[in-house]
Design brief:
By secondary structure, the protein is of the alpha/beta class. The chain is 38% helix and 16% strand. The protein contains 22 helices and 22 strands. The strands form 5 sheets. The chain has a 6-stranded parallel beta sheet with strand order 3-2-4-5-7-6, sandwiched between helices.
Length: 591
């Protein structure tokens, strides 16, 4: 028996448990769309492919499940590329299914073919950042390829894959037995762990250290190992620092949570990392911003410090720092073994009440340093006031998406996250425009949770057409636009080092050029409010959440820099030896 590949693909995705597909139509993929019409799978129709990719990314993070993107060839595929690359750098599993030119027209330059340097080369565009890019050459190979695509996206270090499908193959028939046999194949691979000998060595090395420290990244959340981590930390009494992507892996109110390291880390946190004699890295790349450009006087110092590193990706172990003990393992499996060994070796557990008191005291010092700004009635609002009001209103398990700027760096530094995996941020690629669409995907994935996107006006302006998708699909996201009328972080950087904000602020004829984002929201059919005083914001956010509708809150915000205590080498490139970071600027009318 034979059936169209497009129909069998949809049936395969249904059987795999896929409930949503994010995408946009084109003449190369309408056979799949037609097959989806009567499917249980919901097609989330976007107005731009970058929105589709970011929304799928947010969905995969919140649902902890591989997400599917359906796109058209050529400009559709390139539009999606930034979102797919963002997912790749943050190790988020996506399967991107893209229509391609008809197989019998390869190299003849049919409509929208990319072939300037290689025939039918659209899949080559994705090769630098996906785990693999397939171009389906024959119909009977498609079932095997789609199965391999999911397996590769989900195994090892997760990430996106591309399956580029000539449009005529979607409309070809193949024997249903080719898809049926895939049901016999496991959909979940067992992951590697560590042996007792290695676990014993790690636990003993940490116990013998004078000032041990655990440094965690987003890989702990990806491995669903946050519970095991908390158990290990509590039993061994070891403080925990985190990367930007590791924010919330251990709740910010845990007595042993230090906070974020690196450029936007505080002196206390960076000092604890630099002074640690043994650091245990879990699921982190030790990336530049988290490690103060790897310069030893700021955050981490190896040697003399010793590093233990466990990651699912062998290429990350020893990439930036020499490693004393390195292990390739799934963190959930590894921490399960480590917990068992720790309880065996130290059945009563270990504690350090003096350190916990020191951490608590430092938290109060940091909170006190921001308290006046967090309570300020100044308008435009202080960024600290915006974050404080948002945290006061949101439930503990709310999902937060961020973009770049204050809403990423300031949130990482000052905004408490209490539930692992509840903050979705563009860490590796730092993509402006991620937070808004990612919130749509997160809300679709978790409809019963409050979802708030903290974004700048620059980021929101990247893809305002996401509002059409939110309204059309009744996705009740709240977008809080922290509006400094500029690409604010870059404006502060340019002003500090070059004395100008040219090309970074939104001005016309020398005056602020203001956009009414609340009016744009209402034009799309969403709710929209423009805040005109500090006291208006908190009630507006409460009303937005209660409305259970797509809701945009446009908040004028001072462009004050995020405090920086670490280091970023670009500062030495701009202003050698001057220790200059960012300064405040203003492209908004002042009171």
């Amino acid at each position: 028996m034979k059936e169209l590949i497009s129909r069998q693909l949809v049936q395969y995705l249904e059987a795999r448990g896929i409930e949503h597909i994010f995408g946009l139509c084109g003449h190369t993929n309408i056979a799949v769309l037609a097959a989806l019409e009567k499917s249980s799978i919901k097609f989330v129709n976007t107005r731009h492919e970058q929105v589709a990719a970011h929304a799928a990314d947010g969905y995969a993070r919140a649902r902890r499940q591989t997400a599917v993107v359906l796109t058209h060839l050529g400009p559709g595929l390139t539009n999606a590329a930034t979102g797919v690359a963002n997912a790749s750098l943050d190790s988020i599993p996506l399967v991107v299914i893209a229509g391609d030119v008809p197989s019998h027209y390869y190299g003849k330059h049919p409509h929208q073919e990319v072939n300037l340097h290689a025939d039918a080369a659209q899949s080559e565009i994705y090769r630098p950042f996906v785990k693999r890019a397939w171009r389906v050459e024959r119909p009977e190979l498609f079932p095997e390829i789609i199965e391999k695509a999911f397996q590769l996206a989900e195994s090892g270090r997760p990430g996106p894959v591309l399956v580029s499908v000539p449009m005529d193959i979607f409309s070809r028939e193949v024997d249903v037995a080719l898809f049926e046999r895939l049901k016999l194949h496991t959909k979940k691979l067992h992951r590697p762990s560590i042996d007792d000998e290695t676990a014993t060595r790690i636990v003993q090395m940490l116990a013998a250290a004078k000032s041990p420290l655990i440094h965690v990244g987003g890989g702990v959340v990806l491995a669903d190992a946050t519970t095991e981590l908390a158990q290990f930390v509590t039993h061994m009494g070891i403080p925990v620092s985190h990367s930007l992507m590791g924010k919330g892996v251990l709740p910010d109110d845990h007595p042993l949570t230090l906070g974020m390291t690196g450029f936007w880390g505080t002196p206390f946190i960076n000092d604890k990392c630099r002074e640690a004699d043994v650091v245990f890295g879990l699921g982190t790349r030790f990336a530049e911003a988290d490690c103060s450009s790897w310069e030893s006087e700021y955050s981490f110092n190896f040697p003399p410090g010793k590093l233990i590193h466990i990651d699912i990706d062998a290429s990350e172990i020893g990439r930036n720092y020499p490693v004393e003990i390195g292990a390739v393992a799934d963190l959930k499996q590894a921490l399960t073994v480590l917990n068992r060994i720790a309880r065996k070796l130290y059945p009563e557990g270990r504690s350090n009440s003096a350190l916990e008191q020191q951490i608590a005291a430092n938290r109060e010092v940091v909170a006190a340093s921001h308290r006046a700004d967090a309570r300020s009635n100044a308008f435009p609002l202080r960024p600290e006031r915006i974050l404080a009001d948002v945290r006061a209103v949101l439930p503990r398990n709310a999902l937060i998406t961020t973009d770049v700027g204050w809403n990423k760096n300031g949130v990482g530094q000052q905004f408490p996250i209490y539930e692992p995996g509840s903050i979705l941020t563009p860490g590796g690629f730092a993509t402006m425009g991620f937070g808004g669409p990612a919130a749509i995907g997160a809300k679709i994935a978790c409809p019963d949770r409050v979802v708030v996107a903290l974004v700048g006006d620059g980021g929101f302006g990247q893809n305002p057409a996401m509002l059409a998708t939110a309204v059309q699909e009744n996705v009740a996201v709240v977008w809080v636009i922290m509006n400094n009328n500029a690409f604010g972080t870059i404006a502060g950087l340019e002003k500090a080092h070059f004395g100008t904000t040219f090309g970074t602020e939104f001005v016309k004829d020398g005056k602020p050029y203001l956009v009414d984002y609340a009016a744009i929201a209402r034009a799309y059919g969403a709710e929209g409010v423009q805040i005109t005083s500090a006291d208006e914001f908190k009630p507006a956010l409460e009303r937005a959440i209660a409305s259970k509708r797509p809701f945009v809150i446009d908040v004028a915000m001072q462009n004050a820099p995020v405090p920086t205590a670490g280091h970023w080498n670009i500062m030495d490139i701009y202003s050698p030896g001057q220790k200059v970071h960012h300064v405040a600027t203003s492209a908004l009318p002042q009171p």
